[in-house]
Batch of 2 targets.
Target 1
Amino acid sequence: MKRTSVVICSFLVVLLGAAALAQAPSSQIDAHLLTAKTAAGQDYRATFVNLCLPSAPRGGGAGRGAGGRGGGAPQTPDRANWYAPPFKVFDNLYWLGTRQHSSWALQTSAGIIIIDTNFAWATRPEIIEGLTKLGLNPADIKYVIISHAHGDHDQGAAELQERYSAQVVMGAPDWEATLKRPATAAGGVPTRDIAVGPEGRKLTLGDTTVEIVATPGHTPGTLSYVFPVKDQGRAVMVAYSGGTLTGAFGTDGARWDEYIASQRRIAKVAADAGATVMLSNHSEYDGAYTKARLLSAPRQPGENHPFIVGTDGVQRYFTVMAECAMASKLRVGAK
Ligand SMILES: [Zn+2]
């Protein structure tokens, strides 16, 4: 009996030890989830939910093969489900998005920089006609910067390049993927212009410089930005997050680590620049459509601009991204 008890006790110790080991990752996951949820607060709930609490695979495209989605969604969906009018958001920054995806026009003293396009079917109604409605001239577009080569952000690039001789800027690996698309891809295939490597670069047009930061992860060539705009004459810095979802990373530990490092890199550049405005390319994540509409309501003297979330608000966004990635990496058992 004694010997049996010892065996049972030893067995229990082994079992408890195994349970403790199995629980260690889950408590670590919970710690990352709590940090992310606290950082998200009320401002970034959808970003937290989509990144930290994955459900069914989404159509948003976190696939490694940037550019592969360029051929998708050629038909125009029902306009009633996506059309949004353009809005002037800052003195020199204009929102040209659909209700789901954002495209921006940054006006400088020497022309316009378009930041992200959209699906091909949105190029004319949202970007070209949007600029015209706002009193701007699409022929002034000098650069089109693409955050990453997925169809919901880049299908308009080729048309803007052809019509206005705009130069297209993209991460070098995303150019490689884009140039492999068939000529029949929705929106066509842009000609290679400016490729940004892992070191990033500054892009200056007239009086405005956009700092382009390589933030690989969502795609190998994802780019994020920091740039200045003016709010009623006052300079404010914008941080722009170029790629979000991690749903297709699987157990590729290096890819998770690359994404996490990218969030830290852009968070530091944003902090060093004193960025107080946080933009993404999906309204779901930064509330762009709702915030843009808010601007048409009267603003009290001294009332903050709806897009200004403060330096803490910008940092919290990148904390959500990094912490959710750390939780998800543990959850899928990536090494
Ligand atoms: Zn994407």
Target 2
Amino acid sequence: MIYARIKAFVERLAPELVCERCVTDRLGVSAERTLGVVLHELAAQSEFERQIGPCALCGESTQAIRCKGR
Ligand SMILES: [Zn+2]
């Protein structure tokens, strides 16, 4: 399930930010709309947050998400 894969991916990089494009690239998420929905759901949980910032993988400052937990 793509939701679980994205969640695990962001958690693995915690507490670093990862941008939406890197999530797409690394996980091969084909539908951008799907990614948007998943990120929206993750951001609704207290341990995740979306923010503009430098991505840990590509270094670009753009819309990104991170896991605050651990
Ligand atoms: Zn990136």
